[in-house]
Amino acid sequence: MPSVPEPREQPELARWLRPGDHVWCGQGAAEPLSLTTALVRQAPRIGRLNAFIGMLFSDTFADARQQGLALTGYGGIGNGRHLLKSGAMQVVACHYSQIAGLVARGELRCDVVMLQLSPRGPDGRHSLGIAHDYLPLLARHARVVIAEVNEQMPWTHGSAEALDALRIDASVQVSRPLLETGGPAPGDVERRIAAHAAAFVEDRCVLQPGVGTVPDAILESLGDRRDLGIHAGLVGDGVRKLMQSGAVSNAFKEFDAGRSTTGLAFGSQALYRFVERNPDIVMRDPDTTHAAASLARLSRLVTLNSAVEVDLGGQVNAELAGRAYVGAIGGQGDFVRAALNSPGGRSIIALPSLTKDGASRIVGALAGGVVTTPRSDADIVVTEWGAAQLRGQTMAERCRRLIAIAAPQHREALERGATAP
């Protein structure tokens, strides 16, 4: 068990940080806010710091550029998109599963890790709570590891063991509600998408659900299924509700049988209460949740991912809306490929047919030429107008099927511009 030093109420980071350091911070609802707030405020006194951030739900880094703090991240999820738009943050284009390896090989630098822990649990150990991400893997290479021990962070199964090999150099003690996430409730469009997607989810399937209004709508439609399994990089309240409905048993999962597997759990306070000491949920790091070796053990793996747009060949852009970075590569590539290789598996890309401005999200060419998932990995694309099964189809047939699920007012223009190389 790591030794956690006595708490320091107002951390003086200059004791631990050096000019030029690269600092990695807990992401999303697991952001250690007392530490990241101190990092932004004290950056001018320390000098030339770079912070790597993942999903961002707070406004902590809004003034980072003015404070001389350079920011790097793996995408524009949440408030990160505002930092990218302003030029305050730069993107490292990589799969989520590659991040720890980039640090281990020295291709990304990690000097300091700031993470959030739960209080001691039933085994007397702290846990990583709702975020067993890449940070424990990176901490092995860091010079300094600083922990924020939050009295309100839930203790979770699976994540306490990851701390055994770590040295915690400093800590602060806080009691703060975790940040909540969540979008609007699913509407008619999302429910129509869900009805088409649900047709491909049978009893005993293992689901990798994304998080958002469309994935939540799909999960809501699966309450009558039985013996589903969960293996995901991130779960939200949609998974909580599905588990509480009795549809999930994980009984036929070849990996972590009997338990839902995830690396992150971001959502409402109800979700955080649900995962607290819940033996039916196990937290794993990306070397497990996203690793090809782990995923290869799962049969009937059905992956549910979203997209900004899909072109007529089946290529997926999940990163850019126009010229604005609004997403990330994340784990889409890892999970899509795993579903294609899984016996009985399917990969579903689900999206509304229209943008908020009425433009088609089934397009002739992707914005900026950015391809998150290549056409060679295309399987099923779903909109509110239907499902296009693309695997094994010619390019001409793919065009026809994708145009058929585009918004009706855009189909004629798509047909005129369609090419099938």
Automatic annotation (TrEMBL):
Domain Acetyl-CoA hydrolase/transferase N-terminal: 81-161
Gene3D superfamilies: 4-hydroxybutyrate coenzyme like domains, Acetyl-CoA hydrolase/transferase C-terminal domain, Glutaconate Coenzyme A-transferase
Pfam families in UniProt: AcetylCoA_hyd_C, AcetylCoA_hydro
Keyword Cell inner membrane attached: no
Residue ranges of domain Acetyl-CoA hydrolase/transferase C-terminal in the record: 267-416
Gene Ontology molecular function, alphabetical: acetate CoA-transferase activity; hydrolase activity
Protein name: Acetyl-CoA hydrolase
Species annotation: Xylophilus rhododendri
